[in-house]
UniProtKB/TrEMBL annotation:
Substrate binds at R140. This is Peroxiredoxin. GO terms for cellular component: cytosol. Residues 15-177 form the Thioredoxin domain. Thiol-specific peroxidase that catalyzes the reduction of hydrogen peroxide and organic hydroperoxides to water and alcohols, respectively. Plays a role in cell protection against oxidative stress by detoxifying peroxides. The active site is at C57 (cysteine sulfenic acid (-soh) intermediate). It is found in: Cytoplasm. NCBIfam families: PRK13189.1. Belongs to the peroxiredoxin family. AhpC/Prx1 subfamily. Belongs to the peroxiredoxin family. Prx6 subfamily. The active site is a conserved redox-active cysteine residue, the peroxidatic cysteine (C(P)), which makes the nucleophilic attack on the peroxide substrate. The peroxide oxidizes the C(P)-SH to cysteine sulfenic acid (C(P)-SOH), which then reacts with another cysteine residue, the resolving cysteine (C(R)), to form a disulfide bridge. The disulfide is subsequently reduced by an appropriate electron donor to complete the catalytic cycle. One of its GO terms (molecular function) is thioredoxin peroxidase activity. Its main location: cytoplasm. Its EC number is 1.11.1.24.
Length: 249
């Protein structure tokens, strides 16, 4: 018996993990940008928010801006977008700086670019408009884009739910660690915790792993092996040092 899926929702497109990030030119609060070309060689968190002058978005912008240097330490830039216009963006960011405090953060200046997308062209191309949630506002989408301009992670939140910024930073660190050490990271991984070594690709390697666990690799079973990488080794591989960024590799 064949199964059928019926849906009344129009088909939407969105960049998927592994796709090149769709390119565009946009007006932002920091001038025009060519995306993702202007960010070649850097990681980018490209995110949307539903609307200026709304409380959850305000709390998110204060948090993003307060963590901007921390993201920069991992060679990661922030780029925001909403379907509001440039003057709304400017007025909102000034209001945030002049008037709003959140969790002890106050007087916060947002210096990363915030894209105006009144036509919704970019939001639609990135699958940020979800009509079942709201057809006139972007949901809280997050695209993590790597230094080659490839989408590496996609996270969506609904309008009512502010993002978890520890998780966004964890995603950046985990992706960079996976690339640098050629490993995977298990559930809730944080730097310093064991990483997953690639699954054995042959019976010989599987046997060797199970019988000879003395190379710092510990196996629960042939397909589930971990090794420890000290937090300092992870951080020194992925974190920009005082002398400037040295690419991982
Ligand atoms: C907010 O950011 O507070 C918000 C925006 C749109 C809908 C609901 C909440």
């Amino acid at each position: 018996m064949t199964s059928t899926v019926e849906s009344t929702a129009p088909a939407a497109t969105m960049p998927r993990i592994g796709d090149p990030a769709p390119s565009f030119t946009a007006v932002t609060t920091q001038g025009e940008i060519n995306f993702p070309a202007d960010y070649a060689g850097k990681w980018v968190i490209f995110f949307s928010h539903p609307a200026d002058f709304t409380p959850v978005c305000t709390s998110e912008f204060i948090t993003f801006a307060s963590m901007q240097e921390e993201f920069a330490a991992y060679n990661t830039e922030l780029v925001g977008l909403s379907v509001d216009g440039l003057y709304s963006h400017i007025a909102w960011l000034r209001t945030i700086k002049d008037k709003i405090a959140f969790r002890g953060m106050r007087d916060v200046e947002v210096t990363f670019p915030l894209i105006e997308d009144v036509s919704m062209d970019i939001a639609r191309r990135y699958g940020m408009i979800m009509p079942g949630e709201d057809s006139t506002k972007a949901v809280r989408a997050v695209f993590v884009i790597d230094p080659e301009g490839v989408v590496r992670a996609v996270i969506y939140y609904p309008l009512s739910l502010g993002r978890n910024f520890d998780e966004l930073l964890r995603v950046i660190k985990a992706l960079q660690t996976a690339d640098h050490f050629e490993v995977a990271t298990p559930a809730d991984w944080r730097p310093g915790e064991p990483v997953i070594v690639p699954t054995a690709g042959s019976c010989g390697t599987a046997k060797e792993r199970m019988e000879n666990q003395d190379h710092g690799v510990e196996c629960e079973d042939w397909f589930f092996c971990t090794k420890k990488i000290p937090a300092e080794e992870v951080e020194s591989a992925i974190r920009r040092d005082q002398r400037g960024w040295e690419p991982a590799g």
